[in-house]
Each structure stands twice: as C-alpha cells, then as structure tokens.
Amino acid sequence: MHLITLSPWSKTDILETVEDSLNMKRHPEKYRHAVGGKNLCLLFQKTSTRTRCAGEIGITQLGGHAHYLDWRTTNFALADLGDEMRVLSAYVDIILARFLKHDELVAAATAATVPIINGCCDKYHPTQALGDLMTIQEHFGKLEGIKLCFIGVHNNVCNSLIAAGMKVGIEVTVVAPEVNPAAVDKELWDAAAQKGCYKTLDTDTADVGDALQEIIAESDVVYTDTWVDMEFFTDPAFAEERERRLKKMIPYQLNSELLKRHDCKIMHCLPAHHGYEIAGELVNDERSIIFDQSENRLHSMKAILLKLLAQV
Ligand code: CP
Ligand code: NVA
C-alpha cells in the first residue's frame, strides 16, 4: 500500500490514521518500539522543514531509523529512475518522497517494492491533509459536517483537502481565482462535488469582498496556502508570473480586517508568506490553529508510517 494520493484510501483507513495520530500525541511512550528497527529513506527533490522533520524524527520516535537523501547529491539525478528505486527498495522498508512532478512520483512508486509516501508533489500533499484532519478533529471533536473554506490558489494542498474531506464528510468550498495547472484534477473535483463535499465560489460575477464575507461567515475553518509553490519562488523564469499572481491575489489575502467579524479557526500548512496570502498578525491570532497544525504533522506522520509499515 502506498500513499500517493488519498483517493484509494478508504474512509476507515483515514479515520484510523487520524485516531492513531491523536493516540500517539497523547501517549508517545506507548509507541517507542512500534516499528522495531525499520528503515525509512527520505528522497527529496525540494526543500522542506515540516515534512522532512516529521519523517526523520517520527520514525526515530517509533524505534526505527531515517536516512535523508537530497536527490541532487545522488545518482538518481543521472540514472534510470526505475533502477534506482529498485536499489533503494532493497535497502529500506519505506520511502518518503518529495518529487517535483506527480507523474515521476507515480513512475517511482511503480518501480519500488516498498511503500512510497508522497511528501508533496505538484498535484497532491496527502500527509498534510491527514495532519489537518487530526487538527480539525482535535479542535472540533468531529470531522463530519465541518465546513472548510480554502481561499487562495487552487494547488496540491487544496486537492488533498478535497480528497480527504470527501471521505470523511468535510464540506470544502474553494475560492480560487487561479488554479495551478499541475493541480487540475477534474475527476477528483467531480467526485467530491457529487458527494456534496466540494464547491467553488465564482468571484468573477460577485464583489470579492462581499463573496468572501458570505462564505467565511458560513465556515468553521478558513484555510490558505502560498500563491506560488516553493519550487517557483526563486525561479527567475517564473518571476513575471509570480508578480502577476501577487497583484491578482491581494484581494484574497487573509487579514484582520477580512476576518474581524468572524470566529472561524484559521489554518495554513506553512511555510507562510507574511503579507501575501496571510497577514503576519493572523498567524498568531487567537483563532489561529496553525502551530497545532504544524506540530500535528509529526504525530500524523508517525501514524502513517505505522500503518504502512504494518503491511510490509
Ligand atoms: N507543510 C509542509 O509540508 O511544510 P514543509 O514544506 O516545510 O515540509
Ligand atoms: N503548496 C505549497 C506548500 C506545500 C507545503 C508548495 O507546494 O510549495
């Protein structure tokens, strides 16, 4: 069993993982030897703070070992992907992979003979969504019926929230005047919409401010993420597109003025870009559950590792 996207995971798989995450947070001592010396390899093409630390520290806290590979310092960069994945599979029990391109990750998983966890590609970020479900369960005591509004650029994080939400009954409304081309997944969006768990708010025909006020008033959680994915942030070839997006997206920034009449929780997967998708003051606002969310990446990564390693 892999975790490339949440679509093949059942509701039970997801709910069990959330429950295990919460138990691991409450009683970490019970899980100290849970994976008995198993080895995790992290294979990363992109930068990371949370996902990398959650994987490395998580497996250590479960009694296993972590090996971090920066793609650029390996022969993955010059060799056949299938050959290298087969080799790595013979050395370790599970692989956490952060790849640029979803298709390349799928090819890697096909060649691997051990479980692959998607540590964020251009299309999905499933470990983030599982951690987010844990945080929502922790704060609201339930998942089903929660109304979450994602405001920003429709991206990998947004897709995985939709995929997770439709399994557990969270209603996700997306307010996104831009969609990352790599994140387009009509099959997922149609399936979630049919279950009544996904809709978009058309801001072309309405006043943006009024439309945002209306949807935030109905939401338990307001969630945002970067308008530009990490690999493009300093890419000179993306500079013009970055400037275009920043200008277009400013009316959608989460800030104190926008949220002043609302008591919703505020979520962001981090890293945050203060002054862009979120004003800095909101990160530390009393409604913000952002730092619980980031801490929970560790607990939920441990639950994901335990689940997948139990099947090896
Ligand atoms: N939220 C998240 O995945 O953070 P990192 O990119 O730092 O891993
Ligand atoms: N969507 C952003 C943040 C993921 C943690 C990205 O891919 O860079």
Structure notes:
This protein has 312 residues and is α/β, with parallel strands linked by helices. 42% of the residues lie in helices and 15% in strands. The chain contains eleven helices and nine strands. It has helices spanning 11-26, 50-61, 81-91, 102-111, 126-140, 156-168, 186-194, 208-217, 239-249, 280-283, 290-309; strands at residues 39-44, 65-70, 94-98, 116-118, 147-154, 171-179, 198-200, 221-224, 265-268. It has a five-stranded parallel sheet with strand order 7-6-5-8-9, sandwiched between helices. Strands 2-1-3-4 form a four-stranded parallel sheet, with helices on both faces. Strand 8, helix 9 (239-249) and strand 9 (265-268) form a beta-alpha-beta unit. The longest helix has 20 residues, at 290-309. It is globular and about 55 Å long. It starts with 10 loop residues before the first helix and ends with a helix. It binds phosphoric acid mono(formamide)ester and norvaline (NVA). Residues 48-51, 120, 128, 269-271 line the site of phosphoric acid mono(formamide)ester.
